[in-house]
Amino acid sequence: MTLVCPDRPGIVASISEGLLHLEANILENAQFSDLPTGMFCMRTRFESPIGDASEIAGALRARADALHANMAVRREDERCRALLMVSKYDHCLVDLLYRWHAGELPIDIPVVVSNHGDLEATVSSYGIGFEHLPAAAAAEDRVRKLVAAHDVELVVLARYMQIISDDLCRELAGRMINIHHSFLPSFKGAKPYHQAWERGVKVIGATAHYVTPELDEGPIIDQDVARVGHAHTPDQMVIIGRDLERVVLSRAVKAHSEGRVFLLGRRTVVFL
Amino acid sequence: MTLVCPDRPGIVASISEGLLHLEANILENAQFSDLPTGMFCMRTRFESPIGDASEIAGALRARADALHANMAVRREDERCRALLMVSKYDHCLVDLLYRWHAGELPIDIPVVVSNHGDLEATVSSYGIGFEHLPAAAAAEDRVRKLVAAHDVELVVLARYMQIISDDLCRELAGRMINIHHSFLPSFKGAKPYHQAWERGVKVIGATAHYVTPELDEGPIIDQDVARVGHAHTPDQMVIIGRDLERVVLSRAVKAHSEGRVFLLGRRTVVFL
Amino acid sequence: MTLVCPDRPGIVASISEGLLHLEANILENAQFSDLPTGMFCMRTRFESPIGDASEIAGALRARADALHANMAVRREDERCRALLMVSKYDHCLVDLLYRWHAGELPIDIPVVVSNHGDLEATVSSYGIGFEHLPAAAAAEDRVRKLVAAHDVELVVLARYMQIISDDLCRELAGRMINIHHSFLPSFKGAKPYHQAWERGVKVIGATAHYVTPELDEGPIIDQDVARVGHAHTPDQMVIIGRDLERVVLSRAVKAHSEGRVFLLGRRTVVFL
Amino acid sequence: MTLVCPDRPGIVASISEGLLHLEANILENAQFSDLPTGMFCMRTRFESPIGDASEIAGALRARADALHANMAVRREDERCRALLMVSKYDHCLVDLLYRWHAGELPIDIPVVVSNHGDLEATVSSYGIGFEHLPAAAAAEDRVRKLVAAHDVELVVLARYMQIISDDLCRELAGRMINIHHSFLPSFKGAKPYHQAWERGVKVIGATAHYVTPELDEGPIIDQDVARVGHAHTPDQMVIIGRDLERVVLSRAVKAHSEGRVFLLGRRTVVFL
Q1: Residue B236 to chain D, least CA–CA distance (Å)
Q2: Do C12 and D10 touch (CB under 8 A)?
Q3: Model confidence pLDDT, tens digit, residues B82-114
Q4: Which residues of A touch C247 (CB under 8 A)?
Q5: Which pairing describes strands D2-6 and D70-72: parallel, antiparallel, or unpaired?
Q6: Sign of CA pseudo-dihedral D252, D257, D259, D264
Q7: Which ipTM value was assigned to this complex?
């Protein structure tokens, strides 16, 4: 169960009483009161003899409504439907597919979309559909249809090198994750490793964030870094950066899929 | 409030209801169910119009007893009384004193004990008492008396290079923290950086742990590491290690003093 | 060019003079004097109008002999022939194959050997030969033959879960790399993540090392670590550890293949 | 010996031959060819029976001149004269003084300058002179005089919260190090931890750099980072950041004092 509501006394008491009535055994619980927004976030993993998520949600509904809460209940074996978008660089896509195949990521991947045809064989080898959509505008329309048709909950830009229109950004607000190959807010835009090299930084990074109409300005979900030195060329930074991008994007997709990420304005709460 | 009890349904519901009756506003909450021991740990920071900790504890007592819980309530401005023990190496001591002085550590330091006289001036410059106890056996008796006299809650071995007797280890079980200058369980005992150098490791570390009669085998509270290479001599590792030891011991003392550490057998639960 | 010899004055002067005669332009140079062994290690990347490695080696031979040096010259586009061995866990194998395919690793992979048949399709999809050798003793004989037939320079145990005989360890001394899924020397032997969990460590690791007859005691090439906490189960540590193992093994294979690793007794010199 | 010159074949051969004539035993050597600037940097630690640095420099002078090189020779026991500047935050100053006192930093500190009087006692307790210079313009004139009078080689801004005039920046180009409390180029200017919090980054950092007239744009010497999460307030980031600032500034001062840092335009070469 995930829940967001205005903070006030008694939230935990109310919800935990409700869970007790459901004979729930709490396995994991995290909560956070965000002072600037006054919002309270909560995520609880529990076991209950009632196996049906909607039945549980129904039993908790009155309590949630009294708290003016946005609440969701989900079975842990119900996986997040994620559409992946990619261009030519395959390292993030391959990593997501590998982890999905290895059971590390609780997602289903109905289809992969690309503005290039290069990765069709890679995707097909996993038994996943691939759509080659070379024209940006038409691609967005098709993505909208695929999202609707497959009940897609999350769109992952796994090094998709096209600007997303403002409209689609807004339609998928909080549901579209991008990996940017720099330690944001440093080095927005194109060729961030070359920018990093020119600035002479000693640490490079990668950032997974929700996509917003403002390029590379979306709320950050996860970041990681690696040390570099004067001897690293931009090309070597690109190779080091691939490992960062892979790991950071996969962690962000995993956290989102497990309901661990809450979006509060420009910031995220991530229960790790 | 901190609480440990056998895990069962309804703990959070009961406690949060109790807190609601106290008009408590929860600021921070963490909980964990440890499967191997079957124990449940909980730590809650809250504000309440009732300012007195014992009054709050009294109001929650019946609930805690029903849960067979070990519960404690403490005002956040009540500081942990910590006795520091040190030999000649001063880096951990200086760091603890600096952070204490800067207000980073919620501790009071009634006295510092050493088997050497070297650091008396350093300690005195902070207005803290210093006792030079050169003989190990007599030192332990004196430490017992100081612990009783100053109501000491925590003993910190800040590079105290004497073996603590089994008896004192047991008397202060869960209340005595040591910093070991290796990444335990590697390199127990003397000269760990030299051991690390001989083994040719590429990463060195430091470990803060509760002291038990088994040398360097106590439950680990925190650890950290740094990369090294073939060009680092043991002496250079010692210098790099100082920074690790400082930071790891200070973090462990802070976590313990804030009630964030729970001891479950050989393992700790640390709510960061 | 790589060179190891007893340390003495004039080594760099002699070699750099020799390179000057070859009109070599030095691109990268690293050297190290190891005090305990009294050995000097040097690695130089250079361009020369003489394109033939054996001709260059011949021109430098007299200088090397005068230094009692073990010297090797290799063209950068001559790749290291590496035989991979694997059991059922595929994460290290898949990572090595991916990086090989992406051009990150300067190796050729003539064949992959496994005591299980599970990964044949994965290997074959890269156009690489696969041999299923279920019986340990026979496998070693076959490996010897493959090493000879393919002029194999490096054997990589990419989570190969069989003990290697002392004889083969000695035959391939300094040419066989294993990945151990712990931060050695902690947690040698089986199930290191479970050992780590039981000991309650706050940091886990992985170690790439040359294989010697003493299990998990070989000279360390690279290590890396990740923070864990009380909430991580052994199974979750296994997943986190996979990422460490992948990266550490790939880095070690890369460093070895590029001639950056020198073996001095139980320790390595690694020019990064 | 440190040396910078336009790259060309034969530099190492010439210098190492010169060192051989001086019967020098090379202890450590590092070199780097910077492609964009075409410059070659070299640093060599050696022992020689000739103990006098100017005599050694004299013997190498002709070779250096032939290479159009900027060369310096320095005895290892000759310490770098460093003037420290500080405002009210004392963590970096205290750390530098502690490491200086512990023998970790090869510097002499003739005087500490501050625009506040608060830290006079701290500085004096180490037997170091302290000058309180509240007025910014007059302070710079006095700093110029102190630099001249004490033959100061390095000025360290250890959280000195005053803008340095363009003139002084230019006069001390490559000789004045500042610590900025963010992971540059992110969060230039004031209150970087608050900026970081507002942007919702998951990693914060600190940067040591040479001071140039462009605020927080100078060449970076070292950086380091720490993970943060949604639960960290700006004030908690400040505390975490202190540890980063301390370590990064001390490392940068140490590297500069040991002649390990070469300034090439906007970038630095740092031989670690």
Answers
A1: 10
A2: no
A3: 999 999 999 999 999 999 999 999 999 999 999
A4: 243
A5: antiparallel
A6: positive
A7: 0.94
